[in-house]
């Protein structure tokens, strides 16, 4: 098995970026992944900091149009840029209130939100705004994805599932037996915590923003479950890069 691609998503539910290399940290995971999120003004996450469930944020499962936005993040400077339909453009430093405000205004404009409903771009503490509190990195078996695509009669974009590590060379669905096992990727060691249950956010095409596949139903009808991929926590950190060997240790 080998690591095919590394992806992170600096702002929850906005577009990701592919990395040429990364350094994993114990208990934290992939630096800057889901570090920020778009808090709903009527939720409990507007102050940022502590982990909160996706119910408190603007997210793909409800706001499909977020998939139409294309983002770039410079981890050294903190500069974040966003483009979207109809010439939408915004940029700002996520460490500065005025920079976050520029992104908030752009997202509100794109989603057609009123001033009262404008999101607050908030920053997490040590644990990013993942859907799960335990296991802040995720692994996608590309052959499981292909098996699902074959059942649907079409190729599926792995970005639809917003996972961190895309792995090749593993039998389809073999990862379903990984919970509680240790996995080595490059110099890092992970412990798989749980299988990833899928939600209706996977119905949304990451290129168009349209909900074009009933993915949860497709999994249930074809495979008898609604899961794809696994969550893991980093036990021993270290550098990783595409091409690194992936090994189940126990």
Quickly list its features:
single chain; 250 residues; alpha+beta; M1 Pyruvate Kinase, Domain 3; 2 domains; three-stranded antiparallel sheet; 3 helices; 15 strands
What does this structure look like?
The protein folds into 2 domains: 2-28 and 131-248, M1 Pyruvate Kinase, Domain 3 (Beta Barrel); 36-123, no CATH class. The protein is built from 3 helices and 15 strands. It has helices at residues 97-111, 142-152, 215-223, and strands at 2-8, 17-19, 22-24, 36-39, 70-73, 79-84, 88-93, 120-123, 137-141, 165-168, 182-185, 188-197, 227-236, 238-240, 246-248. The protein has an 8-stranded mixed sheet. The chain starts with a strand and ends with a strand.
- CATH topology of the largest domain: the name is M1 Pyruvate Kinase, Domain 3
Radius of gyration: 18 Å
Overall shape: it is: globular
Strand content: 25-35%
Helix and strand pattern = EEEEEEEHEEHEEEHEEE
* Physical arrangement of strands within the biggest beta sheet: 2-1-10-9-13-12-11-15
Portion of residues within helices: 10-25%
**C-alpha end-to-end distance:** 15 Å
**Named CATH architecture of the largest domain:** Beta Barrel
The main β sheet shows up as: 8 strands, mixed
Provide the residue-averaged pLDDT: 95
Number of strands: 15
Structural class: alpha+beta
Number of helices: 3
CATH superfamily of the largest domain: PK beta-barrel domain-like
Flag low-confidence runs.
none
CATH top level class name of the largest domain? Mainly Beta
What number of domains?
A: 2
């Amino acid at each position: 098995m080998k690591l095919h691609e590394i992806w992170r998503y600096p702002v929850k539910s906005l577009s990701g970026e592919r990395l040429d290399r990364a350094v994993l940290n114990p208990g934290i995971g992939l630096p800057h992944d889901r570090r920020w999120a778009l808090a709903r003004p009527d939720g409990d996450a507007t102050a940022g900091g502590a982990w909160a469930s996706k119910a408190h944020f603007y997210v793909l499962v409800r706001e499909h149009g977020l998939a139409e936005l294309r983002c770039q993040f410079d981890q050294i400077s903190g500069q974040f840029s966003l483009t979207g339909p109809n010439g939408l453009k915004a940029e700002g430093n996520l460490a500065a209130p005025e920079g976050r405000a520029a992104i908030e205004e752009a997202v509100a404009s794109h989603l057609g939100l009123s001033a009262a409903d404008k999101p607050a771009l908030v920053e997490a503490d040590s644990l990013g705004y993942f859907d799960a509190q335990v296991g802040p990195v995720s692994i996608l078996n590309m052959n499981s994805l292909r098996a699902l695509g074959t059942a649907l009669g079409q190729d599926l974009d792995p970005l639809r599932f917003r996972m961190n590590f895309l792995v090749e060379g593993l039998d389809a669905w073999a990862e379903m037996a990984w919970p509680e096992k240790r996995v080595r990727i490059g110099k890092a060691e992970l412990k798989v915590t749980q299988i990833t249950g899928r939600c209706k956010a996977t119905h949304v095409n990451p290129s168009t923003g349209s909900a074009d596949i009933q993915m949860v139903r497709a999994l249930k009808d074809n495979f008898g479950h609604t899961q794809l991929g696994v969550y893991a926590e980093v036990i021993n950190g270290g550098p990783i890069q595409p091409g690194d060997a992936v090994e189940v240790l126990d």
